[in-house]
Specification:
This protein is an alpha+beta fold. 37% of the residues lie in helices and 24% in strands. It folds into two domains: 128 residues, 60s Ribosomal Protein L30, Chain: A (2-Layer Sandwich); 178 residues, Phosphoribosyl-aminoimidazole Synthetase, Chain A, domain 2 (Alpha-Beta Complex). The protein contains eleven helices and 13 strands. Helix 2 packs parallel to helix 3, helix 6 packs antiparallel against helix 11 and helix 7 packs parallel to helix 9. The longest helix has 18 residues. It is globular and about 55 Å long. The termini are far apart.
Length: 323
C-alpha cells in the first residue's frame, strides 16, 4: 500500500483533477488554453472473440477521457500476454484496440506487454481539453436533469454468456453497447454546456451516482421506469446469473440508497451491475436537457434517456433514491 506523506499531499497548482478526487481521469493544466487528460484501464476478456474484446477494452479506456469532456490524443497498449494463447490471438486483440483508437481520432503510440497467467488488455490514454471546460463528477446542481446514454446490464449479460446461459445472438445487444464510443455524447455535452458527468463502469449506476451526489453535495432521484435495462437481464438475475461485483457494489453502496417498495429485488441488482464500457451519466441544467437529448439521439444508434433529477440532499445517508 502506498502512503502519501504531507509533502506528497501538497497539490501541484496545475493538477486540476487528481488523486484527491473520485473522477474518471486526471487533468493537468499546461497553459491557460490547454490541459492534459490522462487515464489507464485494462481488464480480462468479457467475450470470446479476441478482436471484439480488443474493441471493448479500448472503448472502455477511452471513455474516461470522454467523461471529462476531453478529446483523446494518444494511446498506449497495455497487454498481459498468457503463453497459453497464440500470437495470432494477441494480434487480433491489439488490432481490435487499434481500430477503436483510430475511430476515436487518436494515435496509437506504442505500449507494453508482460507475461501473465491471465490475458488482460487495455489502454493508457492521453487527451486534450480546455482547462476552463473540464467536466467533473462533482459539479451537479439542484434542478439538473440526468441523462443516461447507454442501457444497463453488460455485467449480467457477459457473465451469463460465460456460463452458456445465453446465445451469441443474445450477446449482440451488449457487445454493440460496449464497442460504442462515448465520443458523440461527450462532444454534444461540451457544445451545450453541462454541470457534471461520469461514465458508468465498475461501480454500476448506483455507485457512480453516489460519487456524483457525494462530490456535488446534492442528492439524486431516479425514475426506475425510465432506466434502460437490456433484454433478458432481469430474467437472468432471477436465475442468479450475477457477477460478484454486483453484490459487492450492493453491499457497499446500498446504505446510501432508498428504493420505492414497489421495486423488485432483481431490478435493484441491475442498478448495481458493474458495467464494461457503459454510458455517460450527464447532469445538465433542465432548460438544456431536451436540446442535449435531441442532439445525441439524432446521431446515435443507442438511445439516450432522461432518467432522473438532482435534488437537495437532506441526509448524508440518503443520497440516492429510486422511485
Amino acid at each position: 500500500m502506498c502512503h502519501l506523506d504531507d509533502n506528497d499531499k501538497k497539490r501541484d497548482k496545475n493538477l486540476i483533477v487528481g488523486f484527491d478526487k473520485s473522477d474518471d481521469a486526471g487533468v493537468y493544466k499546461l497553459d491557460e488554453e490547454t490541459a492534459l487528460v490522462q487515464t489507464v484501464d485494462f481488464f480480462t476478456p468479457v467475450v470470446d472473440d479476441p478482436y471484439l474484446y480488443g474493441q471493448i477494452a479500448a472503448a472502455n479506456s477511452l471513455s474516461d477521457v470522454y467523461a471529462m469532456g476531453g478529446k483523446p490524443l494518444t494511446a498506449l497498449n497495455i497487454a498481459c500476454y498468457s503463453c497459453s494463447i497464440t500470437p495470432q490471438i494477441l494480434a487480433e486483440i491489439l488490432n481490435g484496440g487499434a481500430n477503436k483508437i483510430k475511430e476515436a481520432g487518436a494515435v496509437l503510440a506504442g505500449g507494453h506487454t508482460v507475461t501473465d497467467k491471465e490475458v488482460k488488455y487495455g489502454l493508457s490514454v492521453t487527451g486534450l481539453i480546455d482547462p476552463k471546460k473540464v467536466v467533473t463528477n462533482s459539479g451537479a446542481k439542484v434542478g439538473d436533469l440526468l441523462i443516461l446514454t447507454k442501457p444497463l446490464g453488460t455485467g449480467i449479460i457477459t457473465t451469463s454468456f460465460k456460463f452458456d446461459l445465453i446465445s451469441e445472438k443474445e450477446l449482440e445487444e451488449a457487445t454493440k453497447v460496449m464497442v460504442t464510443l462515448n465520443k458523440l455524447a461527450s462532444e454534444e455535452m461540451q457544445k451545450i454546456g453541462v454541470n457534471a458527468c461520469t461514465d458508468i463502469t465498475g461501480f454500476g449506476l448506483i455507485g457512480h451516482s453516489y460519487e456524483m451526489a457525494k462530490g456535488s453535495n446534492v442528492a439524486i432521484e431516479f425514475d426506475s421506469s425510465k432506466i434502460m435495462i437490456m433484454d433478458k437481464v432481469i430474467e437472468l438475475i432471477k436465475k442468479d446469473s450475477v457477477p460478484g461485483g454486483a453484490y459487492s457494489n450492493k453491499q457497499f453502496f446500498e446504505k446510501w440508497v432508498s428504493f420505492n417498495s414497489s421495486i423488485e429485488e432483481a431490478e435493484k441488482i441491475a442498478l448495481f451491475d458493474p458495467q464494461t464500457s457503459g454510458g455517460l451519466l450527464i447532469s445538465v441544467p433542465e432548460q438544456k436537457a431536451l436540446k442535449l437529448l435531441k442532439n445525441i439521439n439524432e446521431k446515435s444508434e443507442i438511445e439516450a434517456v432522461i432518467v432522473g433529477k438532482v435534488v437537495e440532499a437532506t441526509s448524508d445517508n440518503n443520497l440516492i433514491s429510486v422511485i
